[in-house]
Amino acid sequence: MQTYKIAVIPGDGIGVEVVPSAIKVLDKIAKKEGTFQFEWTYFPWGCEYYLEHGEMMPADGIETLKQYDQIFLGAVGMPDIVPDHVSLWGLLIKIRREMKQAINVRPAKLLKGLDSPLKNPNNFDIMVVRENSEGEYSESGGRIHAGQDEIAMQNAVFTRKATERVMRYAFELAKHSRGHVTSATKSNGLTYSMPFWDEVFAEVKQDYPEIDTAVNHIDALAAFFVMKPQAFDVIVASNLFGDILTDLGGAIMGSIGIAPAANLNIEREYPSMFEPVHGSAPDIAGKGIANPIGQIWTGKMMLDFLGHPEAGEQVMAAIEATLEAGIKTGDIGGTATMDEVVKAILARI
Ligand code: NAI
Ligand code: MG
Fold first, then answer.
1. What's residue 139's pLDDT?
2. In CATH, which superfamily holds the domain spanning 116-253?
């Protein structure tokens, strides 16, 4: 029996509700498969920890996490009490960067039993591969001349290593899907970073003659997500472009509450981190009405990464069967509580 040691960080708000829900589903599928099991270790890190200790996680937190196979995270943020840049950079971004989780993968797919806000969703099934370590989200820049003539500068950083790595990952993924990669660019507006991005894409694609490609400017691509999402298979994007595009991906699926994500260390040198796209949703926290599907689908991505895609498929089938039976939380037009949805999914595994 294979045992996976998973570090669990439920975080704040609805994170502490949806994480235990997803763990019930993962334990059930593991038991059903009978070849592997999970050993969950909880860490109470987040904004309440910050209020008590003055830091989002202990100084040796990263070293502690390195002892685990993977990290399963809910959401972090209590914006009324702790500024978002403190909570985000003190935990999430710290883990992503120090664990070299350089690739962020986020599917956007029309699930059976769900209404998309699009009139013609045409069964879209997209995988956005986002560069997760550099790009527009860099700590390079500064502010000078505080006051009236103030200047703020934020530098984007694109290295050949990270750019090539994310593109190769996208091409490898496309081999196992529908054989198409779209590059998100903006080389008509950004005169250094994106022409470089385009050059590297043109080089990398030479190594994958069997894969079809397209290059779209990010603004047009955002419009295509609404007009013809079925045109896309794998999309490779920089950190900022991928971030924005995947919120749109969540929206066309029907709710951000169902969108999953994985921060991958593809070299498997350190643990990867699996966390849904949504945040801590303070407006609905504590009410028992959060949609658990984003967290559960995130668990499915962890199963895939651990090498159990057949278990992952069963989880997806149970989610879709539950939606088709009309058992849905309020964000997707239903009246069920989170616990009712979880119970229905468990019953279908
Ligand atoms: P949010 O994703 O928490 O909420 C946006 C809207 O979507 C809210 O109306 C919320 O009720 C709804 N929503 C989100 N998840 C849902 C679910 N599972 N079921 C039903 N409805 C759901 O984003 P917001 O409000 O911008 O941020 C709140 C806090 O979360 C902030 O502190 C922010 O920094 C943090 N955040 C953390 C993230 C993370 O930990 N990965 C990601 C995004 C935001
Ligand atoms: Mg985002």
1. 85
2. Isopropylmalate Dehydrogenase (3.40.718.10)
